[in-house]
Design brief:
Length: 364
């Protein structure tokens, strides 16, 4: 059933009259619509039907985003010349004063001001863009370092916990609900043979050598908007901002910034990590965080892309075996195709690991 976007739009305190609403963007989780208003001088909006199968407690999720955007807003407004409506996500309040509404079928909706004149990329083609992405995430982490109050809610517990991801993977293979596991031995072997080495970041955390910091947890490049000159503008998709290791954000960004092919590339020979894009992102990121990170955090930055690319590969493969319950898919074997491309990317990172370590050593 098509949602009545106008009616939902009208439940929020907006400025402007609904003109039209269309599906927007290439996110894998929520249903996202761009709402255009009739007046030329009023904001457009982003309206999202939230995925409450994945995010089980929407009020807590929204409370996190309210706190995070309020804090970012304060920091960004202190910068002379800041364009707050474009550099920070702005949530709209509903007519009953909450940052979300529920419709008559129990779906949750929220609305943001549409960030005008932004550029969003699924694939990055120049070191300059990669550098800007690194700066944006570095600044984002720095600005949130002094968020006051209680720790943020864990909107998805154990989100990048590789031990938990491996447990779930093994359980799903055993249950094999769609009869797919027997057809993907190569991919399953490729995951299992790397399992031990991938636990190193968790181990460093448990030993107290790397701290939990406020991290974004979903730094794929299309969650970093650039402006019309391809300069860093705004970090979006704040659903998973919560305590984590900086390696998670660094790794996920490199997974998408430095891959010269699409996340779901069918032609595996095209999938490769570009070392210049890696270097440029790392340079941008470290320009903002060099003085904050400890030496162990810095030392393991080069490893992070292998871990996160592997983690996302496991998640795509688990979802494939589990009959596609989690990620939005666009054709029958989409999750398998994504997993294969990500595993190929892990191989490319392994081949270039020596150079990645050297680049980080020279930058820190
Ligand atoms: P998902 O979790 O499904 O990826 P996102 O919150 O990332 O959802 O939104 C999906 C897409 O919608 C983004 O990749 C981006 O293209 C677009 N988008 C989200 N919020 C805004 C905004 N405030 N202004 C402009 N575009 C946005
Ligand atoms: C999802 O929400 P989106 O599309 O930006 C996913 C990420 C994955 C990514 C893979 C909440 O990101 O963890 O890395 O797909 N988000 C969630 O493309 O699971
Ligand atoms: Mg997104």
């Amino acid at each position: 059933m098509h949602p009545d976007l106008k009616e939902i739009f009208d439940s929020f305190n907006t400025d402007g009259t609904f003109s039209k609403g269309e599906p927007f963007g290439s996110g894998h989780i929520h249903d996202t619509f761009r709402i255009e208003t009739a007046e030329k001088d009023k904001n457009d909006y982003i309206l999202q039907r939230l995925n409450n199968k994945i995010f089980r407690n929407i009020p807590e999720l929204q409370q996190n985003i309210e706190r995070v955007t309020l804090h970012l807003r304060k920091k960004i407004s202190e910068v002379p010349g800041a364009d707050i409506k474009r550099e920070c996500l702005s949530l709209l309040n509903s007519k009953d004063n909450k940052s979300w509404i529920t419709d008559e079928t129990g779906n949750y909706w929220r609305m943001y001001i549409f960030i005008s004149n932004h550029r969003s990329y699924d694939i990055v083609d120049t070191p300059d863009k990669a550098f800007e992405g690194g700066k944006a995430i570095g600044r984002f982490q720095a600005m949130l370092a002094d968020l006051p109050g209680e720790p943020l809610h864990e909107t998805i517990p154990f989100f990048h916990d590789i031990e938990k991801r491996l447990e779930k993977f093994n359980m799903t293979i055993k249950a094999n609900p769609a009869g797919r596991a027997e057809k993907i031995h190569n991919e399953i072997d490729s995951v299992l043979k790397r399992a031990e080495i991938m636990k190193v970041i968790l181990k460093l955390g448990k030993e107290g050598k790397i701290p939990l910091r406020i991290t974004h947890y979903d730094t794929k490049f299309n969650n970093i908007l650039l402006d019309e000159d391809d300069k860093a503008l705004c970090v979006i998709d704040l659903d998973t901002v919560m305590p984590g290791y900086v390696h998670y954000d660094f790794g996920d960004a490199i997974r998408t910034v430095a891959n010269i092919a699409a996340e779901d590339e069918r032609e595996l020979s095209k999938v490769k990590m570009d070392i210049d894009l890696f270097e440029a992102y790392a340079r941008g990121y470290l320009s903002e965080t060099r003085d904050t990170l400890n030496s162990v955090e810095k030392e393991y930055l080069a490893f992070a892309p292998r871990l996160i690319t592997y983690t996302i590969a496991i998640r795509f493969l688990t979802d494939y075996i589990d009959d596609d319950n989690y990620f939005k898919i666009h054709h029958e074997h989409h999750n398998l195709q994504r997993a294969k491309a990500q595993l190929k990317l892990v191989e490319s990172m392994e081949e270039q690991y020596g150079t990645m370590k050297e680049i980080i050593r020279n930058l820190v």
